[in-house]
Design brief:
Helix content: over 70%
Distance between the termini: 131 Å
Number of helices: 10
Number of strands: 0
Strand content: under 5%
Largest sheet: none
Length: about 450
């Protein structure tokens, strides 16, 4: 035989419902706390961004001022009369052109960093302020809407509780009425059975007395049966009424239960998502615009710097000693141009201006010519050897001074350990032992070059 089903008592059902509602209410409270926390973190983030860019603007302005001072310090020297004349004379030379472009680049960077500081202060920071104000305002409105949604949800839960209580009450009344009806039916069956037994047990008596007794007993039994039937009818009517009420209450409870579950589902699946969207309304897009303004400013700063550096690079590529030498000699033509030839100055009317090969001096001139030709041949051979030596020495000097030791990209390869950066820098061509050795070789070669020049002439 199967064991009878175990039904939960009203108190157990109410306790479970109260526990479930308390968990939901605690969840709703935590949801608002979570949104509050997110709002506080957002406000703090925006405040940190404002403080960061405000400090960065100060640094950019200080850097701009220092660059301006640096440029003005050297530009002031060129404004003096002597230096101005020197600049006027030297402005076509490639080293001077590099120097001027370098100073112009410093001034350009100064202006660019001033512009960058101004963009930070008057463009980017106000954007973050606006985002912060908008976020706070939208969060406040969203929180009001969320609180209303939670209140409506709790109202639905309370209504479900009320409907459930009503259903329990009517169902309990129906069960009670059913029990009373069954009790009345049992009493009726019992009374009818009792009457039948009494008739079977009756003994014969005189006709008159028997008739009177039977009439009296039938009257009593009939009266009792009528009372029971009347009570049964009342209880039947009460049961039917309570049963109808219980059915209606159960239907209302089931409909309310469906509506409540739908409301809970709608709140957790749709309303909460929409509520967070309201809190985030425009936040990410506005933050995107503010940070893209920063990127635009920084990228344009880099572009401006690259344009200036490209001009300097072009000037560096055009550093040419031969061209500068030609320009220098052309600018100072009166200084470097050859002087007039010395003319033959006749003495005391001697008008002969050519070599005279008369017989007394002819042999002497021939001998002198032969000696000169022999000497010229020897000097030509020596000059060829010296020329080769000078060219080799000059090439050695050129190799020393044109070595490509200017690439410092390795110094900007960042790693987790600064030791690797230090070791990379220490191993570069610009380390002290390498510089000392290179300088010694250069000076020794230069000394040899000038010694040969002095010995054999320029």
């Amino acid at each position: 035989m199967t064991s009878p089903a175990k039904f939960k008592k009203d108190k157990e059902i109410i306790a479970e419902y109260d526990t479930q509602v308390k968990e939901i209410r605690a969840q709703l409270t935590e949801q608002m706390k979570c949104l509050d926390q997110q709002c506080e973190l957002r406000v703090q983030l925006l405040q940190d961004l404002q403080d960061f860019f405000r400090k960065k603007a100060e640094i950019e302005m200080d850097y701009s001022r220092n660059l301006e001072k640096l440029a003005e310090r050297f530009l002031a020297k060129t404004r003096s009369t002597k230096d101005q004349q020197f600049k006027k004379d030297q402005n076509v030379l490639s080293p001077v052109n590099c120097w001027n472009l370098l100073l112009n680049q410093v001034k350009r960077e100064s202006r660019d960093h001033t512009t960058l500081s101004d963009i930070y202060l008057n463009n980017i920071i106000p954007r973050f302020v606006q985002v912060s104000e908008d976020s706070g305002r939208l969060f406040k409105k969203s929180k009001e809407v969320g609180q209303q949604l939670q209140d409506d949800l709790m109202k639905v839960l309370n209504e479900l509780y009320s409907v459930m209580k009503t259903y329990h009450m009517y169902n309990a009344d129906s069960i009670s009425a059913q029990s009373k009806l069954k009790e009345a039916e049992k009493q009726e069956e019992k009374q009818i059975g009792k009457s039948v037994k009494q008739e079977d047990r009756q003994t014969p008596r005189s006709p008159d007395s028997t008739a009177n007794v039977r009439i009296e007993e039938k009257h009593v039994r009939r009266s009792s049966v009528k009372k029971i039937e009347k009570m049964k009818e009342k209880r039947q009517a009460k049961y039917t009424e309570n049963k109808l009420k219980a059915i209606k209450a159960r239907n209302e409870y089931l409909l309310a239960l469906e509506a409540t579950n739908a409301s809970v589902f709608k709140y957790y699946i749709h309303d909460l998502s929409d509520l967070i969207d309201c809190c985030d309304l425009g936040y990410h897009a506005s933050l995107n615009r503010a940070l893209r303004t920063f990127l635009s400013a920084e990228l344009n700063l880099e572009q401006s710097k690259h344009e200036g550096l490209d001009a300097i690079e072009n000037a560096v590529e055009n550093l040419d000693a031969t061209s500068d030498k030609q320009r220098l000699m052309e600018m100072y033509n009166n200084v470097f141009c050859p002087p007039m030839k010395f003319e033959f100055q006749p003495h005391m009317g001697d008008m002969a201006s050519q070599l005279c090969a008369q017989q007394p001096v002819q042999s002497e001139l021939v001998q002198r010519c032969q000696q000169l030709q022999s000497r010229l041949s020897t000097l030509k051979i020596e000059n060829e050897e010296v020329k080769k030596t000078m060219e080799a020495t000059l090439q050695t000097i050129q190799d020393i001074v044109t070595v490509e030791d200017f690439d410092v990209s390795d110094c900007f390869q960042y790693s987790n350990s600064m030791e690797s950066v230090k070791s990379t820098v220490s191993e570069t061509f610009m380390s002290k032992p390498s510089i000392a050795k290179r300088r010694a070789n250069q000076q020794e070669t230069e000394q040899f070059y000038f010694t040969v020049r002095e010995r054999y002439g320029f």
